[in-house]
TrEMBL record:
Gene3D superfamilies: FAD/NAD(P)-binding domain
Pfam families: DAO (PF01266)
InterPro entries: FAD-dep_OxRdtase, FAD/NAD-bd_sf
Species this chain originates from: Vreelandella olivaria
Residues making up the signal peptide according to the UniProt record: none
Domain FAD dependent oxidoreductase: 4-151
UniProt-listed SUPFAM superfamilies: FAD/NAD(P)-binding domain
Name of the protein in question: FAD dependent oxidoreductase domain-containing protein
Highest taxon of source: Bacteria
Record's keyword terms, sorted: Oxidoreductase
Length: 152
């Protein structure tokens, strides 16, 4: 998707697939089982592997896990690229600085949203509220286990 956005908008979201090392894992067997169930690559690695990836890390044992497929993206650049791509689509209308305060329901189905700029209706509603999605969805009695946390 990141490559497609770059091609279509000229904006690079800077997706980089570099993998992720999990160090000093207490429940490695449980994590490995989880990965197998989901079909995700995850493997136990030793201190030599960790040192090759991260020379400044010293490990006393072989309690590290490696997930090679994990990647990262620059969120501000991704948002900019998505906005540019959506703005180029004639069937899409972007509304910014428009707070959603509730849902418009009809016969048990969500038909739109109540906003600070008035009601908006649509065939489909996608909630993209990040850490605040749970609060908004609770208005529909949908429990989403997401909460805001401060990054480091």
């Amino acid at each position: 998707m990141a490559l497609r956005l770059l091609e279509e908008t000229g904006i690079d979201p800077e997706y980089r697939q570099k993998g992720l090392l999990y160090l000093n894992v207490d429940d490695a067997d449980k994590a490995l089982q989880w990965a197998r169930q989901l079909g995700k690559p995850l493997e136990r690695v030793g201190a030599d592997f960790v040192h090759a990836k991260e020379p400044g890390v010293a490990m006393a044992d072989d309690s590290a896990l490696w997930m090679p497929t994990l990647g990262s993206v620059r969120n501000p650049r991704l948002a900019k690229a998505l906005k540019a791509r959506l703005a180029a689509m004639p069937q899409v209308t972007l509304k910014e600085q428009c707070e959603v305060s509730g849902f418009i329901q009809q016969s048990g189905q969500v038909k739109g949203v109540e906003t600070s700029q008035g009601p908006l209706t649509a065939e489909r509603i996608i909630v993209c509220g990040g850490a605040w999605a749970a609060q908004l969805l609770s208005l529909l009695n949908v429990q989403l286990p997401v909460r805001p946390v401060k990054g480091r």
